[in-house]
Amino acid sequence: MNDLQAHRSRYPEQTSADAFPYARDDEISLVDLWLVLDKRKWWIFGTALASLIAGMAFAAWAPKTYNFRTTIEVGTTEKNGNLVPIEQLETVEAKLENSYIPLVRKKRGAANGPVPDIQATVPKHSTLVTLRSRGPQEDRPHHLSAHRAVLDQLLQDHRRVLEVLRTKLEGKLERARIRLEELSDPRVIEAKRSPMERRLVQAKLELEELGDKTIFQAQRKSIESELAGTRRQLQSLQDQEELLKKDRSNLEMRSELLKERIEALQDEIRNSEQHRRQAAGGVGSPTEAMAQLMIDNELQQNRERLATLEERLYVGLPKDRAKLEMAIADNRRARQDQNQRIAAIEAKLAKTLRQHEYRMENKKTNIPVLKAKLEEYGANHERAMAEQKQTVAELENQLKNFSKTRAIVPPMQSLEPTNSSPKLIVALSIVLGLFAGVFLAFFVEFREKAKAEMAARAGA
């Protein structure tokens, strides 16, 4: 019978389900755990002691390890009044981790020498890069030389970057100085100011010319004289039209008179013919014959006169009437042309007055604008001069403030070993030994119970 069974047989009331309600089939009894630990305490103490001895031996004979460190300050330049690295720190770290450190390790491995494991880190909010490695005191030369080799690779690359930046900055500075000289050159200033000054003087002269009443009145009088002459011509055409109308009225009167005379001649001719017929029957004496001859002669003359009057009535008067109507039509067209010319001259006069007023107002407003542009050019030129001087000064400061990449201090070894202290090692060995002893105690107890269970089943 083991101790646990002896204890339960000695104190049955404390081991019942009613006395220990927490002792269930599916729960772990703290009392049982304590009894197991008490039973296997020597296992625990022995394991802890063994762990303590091992820890003390490790603390006494473990090799001492030191840190080897190189702190690198990346070169800087000035930009917008702030110092910025010549190369991004992330880029520097990537070059170190992926290029320079593997290259140095490869060279040392080819030479069959120790290959330190160097790591590059970038502290936050700084322009520093740190190289770290760990190793024993006897490997110190190898660590320091590896750090220097990595540093040399970085310095060589940054010398190239710095030279490129310096060349670009010197080019910018040279162009800025040339621009400043151009802004300061009086000939350039005069070449830009002269056209504006000439336009201003020209505008003032034009305004004075527009304001001169003598010049404008002469131009206006010329147009008004042309208008008056055109109106006189129109009046003359109107007078001609009146005369033509009177001629047309006289022509009608002449036509009536000709008709009356024709009728009278026709009556005379009829009377003469009647007398001739009467006289033709009794012609015998010379006197009667003479009378007959005179009647025939008169009749002949009247007929000729009638023909002439009829020709004038039916041929001459229509011609004269046609000419008169053509003259009246020409007169009307001429009057229309004169009216149109008068309207054009009046429009020209009104346009001249409007243009004069517009040009006067335009020049009055244009002169202040030209003055403002001239003043603005002066102000802009002064501002450009000041800005260019500032640019030159900033570029000169950037050239002066170039700093090279350097190691703040040479690669160095830590003063104290980086191993854990012996006290800490001993304390950790004790703690680990106790945990291992507890685990071992439960394992041994479990193993014995398993054997007892198997033996009981075999006996049954």
Report on the architecture of this protein:
The protein has 460 residues and is α+β, with helices and mostly antiparallel strands. It has 2 domains: 65-183 and 406-413, Alpha-Beta Plaits (2-Layer Sandwich), CATH 3.30.70; 201-399, Helix Hairpins. The protein contains 10 helices and 7 strands. It has helices at residues 3-10, 12-15, 30-39, 41-61, 89-110, 140-184, 186-211, 213-280, 286-400, 422-459; strands spanning 65-73, 76-79, 82-85, 119-121, 128-136, 406-407, 412-413. The strands form 2 sheets. Strands 1, 4, 5, 6 and 7 form a 5-stranded antiparallel sheet that branches. It has a two-stranded antiparallel ribbon with strand order 2-3. Strand 4 (119-121) and strand 5 form a beta hairpin. It is rod-shaped.
Share of helix among residues?
A: over 70%
Number of separate helices: 10
Arithmetic mean of pLDDT: 80
Number of domain modules: 2
Shape annotation: rod-shaped
Largest sheet: 5 strands, antiparallel
Strand content: 5-15%
Order of helices and strands: HHHHEEEHEEHHHHEEH
What's the CATH architecture of the largest domain? Orthogonal Bundle
**Any idea of the CATH topology of the largest domain?**
Helix Hairpins
- The parts where pLDDT drops under 50 for at least 5 residues are 10-26
